[in-house]
Design a protein that fits this description.
Layout: H1 13-24, E1 31-34, H2 44-59, E2 63-68, H3 78-91, E3 100-101, H4 106-118, E4 122-125, H5 129-136, H6 153-164, E5 174-177, E6 192-196, E7 210-212, H7 214-224, E8 229-233, H8 240-248, E9 257-261, E10 264-266, H9 273-281, H10 296-302, H11 306-316, E11 323-325, H12 327-341, E12 344-345, E13 347-348, E14 351-356, E15 367-370, E16 380-383, E17 388-392, E18 412-415, E19 420-428, E20 434-442, E21 458-459, E22 461-463, E23 468-475, E24 506-513, E25 525-528, E26 532-536, E27 548-553
Parallel strand pairs: 1-2, 2-3, 8-9, 10-11, 12-25, 14-20, 18-21, 23-27
Antiparallel strand pairs: 4-5, 5-6, 6-7, 13-24, 14-17, 15-16, 17-22, 18-19, 19-20, 23-24, 25-26, 26-27
């Protein structure tokens, strides 16, 4: 799970288990898998699981399969399959062989179900879903056997065959394992492993009208693929006895070890695909890849780097304890990776016009500047100057506060990579608003300090003649509450999380940026000096035609302030 090949390996309880398995000979290799359900886009929680599964396989010179858990066809689609594939590849991971699907194993899963029936370990049940819940019992009381539990093997085989052939209505019958209705683990109280559901499947079409349940499908799929360590989130810990029971009671050679780790909860975000889908359906975001969404596609479009997401996954670690992480940890990891890799340019997002009154085309010179102070290989660009320039409005104060080191009436400041200028006149409109500054250039200060005085302040700027006007999408956090789906109202019920959508999470800001960025390809990351990190939009930025930038993250954390 390293972000770099020479990054230190941080031990955790999963590594300790794998190390012990390899040392004792229980396992000769490491084969993991990442098994998402393709019913939405991958989010930051998936990113953690991807980094764990693929990262461990890489670190142990093993393999990691990508398998789509496509047993719930109502909500699944090829769009979501392709999104997962793109996201994993973008993060820099490679799965073993072709993409696998649980539906690849439907015939074998059916055959194993027949095997369980013949062994007297599975039966067809006619209880409705509501009746089944009543028979299941509770945490402090045992369940009761279904009145259909003692059907003969022959009757169960006949009914299950007819279920497959479509003789019975949806939901009228299920196939259940015969385990123990008095078990203290509710998951072992005769769980259903097949249900009747006439739904078109995105891969198998209408071949099946019965579909296997997740707990039954997952363990057998792992075993078929030769998985050694089946890593999943902590909510499946109570399902592990069922995982083991199924594999112990069918004729399959491999028995993977299920290991659980805590799932990620990111503050000011959601990691429920159902709730993320609601945001999309209700038009509260522009889609699954909206840069405000905690999806990998959204983070990619916002300008997060794969290295930043991997560094985040490494920093939050792997444990069984609650994993509630503040957004600043993710933003900090992203910021850290962008600092070294992003070319610097200047941009102005809240422009104030400055006229350089003594500008002289024959005398006033431009300079070149490096794209990065520590990476000469990034090259340089020309920073042109003209009679009219733009500066940030908040870099000027008519009545400056204490310790002010930027521009003020009668004061001096250095233009980044250029001259020292002095503000000689403040121009206001009829409402008293400042609309223009008239400043003079000290032509003896290009590349050197002025004589006889110190000028401490340096501000960024762009030439009004040369800069390009661009649209900047200024993104902030999507929610105003740290845990938007965990807020209770006065009645004790949970408040709809959609009430906490931050109405200020997206602002469209016209800006002026150095012309050198216009030719940049989509998904090019830049640091706008003194402003933050920005990326050319993946889809709407048109090189040479139209510049569209998304704000990724500020130069430092300002949220807590």
């Amino acid at each position: 799970m390293s972000t770099e090949t020479n990054a230190p390996v941080i031990s955790n309880f999963i590594r300790n288990i794998i190390d012990d398995d390899l040392a004792t000979g229980r396992r000769n290799s490491v084969v993991t898998r990442f098994p998402p359900e393709p019913n939405g886009f991958a989010h930051i929680g998936h990113a953690k699981a991807i980094c764990i599964n693929f990262g461990l396989a890489e670190d142990y010179n093993g393999l990691c399969n990508l398998r789509m858990d496509d047993t719930n066809p109502e909500k699944e689609s090829e769009e979501f399959v392709e999104a997962f594939k793109q996201d994993i590849a973008w993060l820099g991971f490679h799965w073993n062989g072709e993409v696998r699907y649980a539906s690849d194993y439907f015939d074998r899963l059916y055959d194993y179900a027949i095997e369980l029936i013949k062994a007297g370990k599975a039966y067809v049940d006619d209880l409705t879903a509501e009746e089944m819940r009543k028979y299941r019992g509770g945490l402090t009381e045992p369940g009761k056997n279904s009145p259909y539990r003692d059907r003969s093997v022959e009757e169960n085989l006949d009914l299950f065959t007819r279920m497959r052939e479509g003789e019975f209505p949806d939901g009228s019958k299920t196939l259940r394992l015969k385990i123990d209705m008095a078990s203290p683990n509710i998951n072992l109280r005769d769980p259903a492993i097949y249900r009747i559901r006439r739904v078109h499947h995105h891969r198998t079409g209408d071949k099946w009208c019965i579909y296997p349940m997740y707990d039954y499908t997952h363990c057998i799929s792992d075993a078929i693929e030769g998985i050694t360590h089946s890593l999943c989130s902590l909510e499946f810990e109570d399902h592990r006895p069922l995982y083991d029971w199924v594999l112990d009671n069918i004729s399959i050679g491999n028995h993977p070890q299920q290991i659980e780790f805590s799932r990620l909860e990111l503050l000011y975000a959601l990691t429920s695909k159902r709730k993320l889908q609601a945001l999309v359906n209700d038009g509260l975001v522009t889609g699954w890849d909206d840069p405000r969404m905690p999806t990998i596609a959204g983070m990619r479009r916002r300008g997060y780097s794969p290295a930043g997401i991997k560094l985040f996954a490494q920093r939050i670690g792997v444990s069984k304890s609650e994993n509630i992480i503040d957004m600043t940890i993710l933003e900090g990891a992203v910021r850290e990776t962008l600092e070294n890799d992003s070319p610097r340019v200047m941009a102005v997002v809240n422009p104030l016009k400055v006229t350089l009154t003594n500008y002289d085309e024959a005398v006033t010179a431009s300079r070149s500047a490096p794209f990065h102070p520590h990476h000469p290989e990034f090259g340089e660009r020309e920073v042109p100057i003209a009679r009219e320039i733009w500066i940030e409005q908040d870099d000027f104060a008519e009545v400056p506060p204490p310790k002010w080191q930027r521009l003020t009436a009668g004061g001096e400041v250095r233009l980044r990579y250029s001259y020292v200028i002095k503000c000689d006149e403040v121009v206001k409109d009829a409402n008293g608003e400042i609309v223009e500054l008239k400043c003079s250039i000290d032509h003896d200060t290009l590349g050197k300090n002025p004589e006889g005085r110190k000028v401490k302040g340096v501000i960024h700027w762009v030439s009004a003649e040369h800069a390009i006007e661009t649209e900047v999408r200024w993104y902030d956090r999507l929610f105003t509450e740290p845990r938007p789906d965990a807020v209770r109202g006065e009645d004790g019920d949970y408040v709809d999380f959609r009430q906490f959508v931050n109405q200020e999470s997206l602002k469209l800001v016209p800006a002026f940026v150095e012309a050198s960025v216009l030719q940049a390809a989509p998904e090019s990351r830049f640091q706008f000096e003194r402003l933050g990190y920005f990326v050319t939009d993946r889809y709407e930025h048109q090189p040479g035609v139209k510049a569209v930038f998304n704000r990724t993250v500020g130069l430092k954390d300002s949220w807590s302030k």
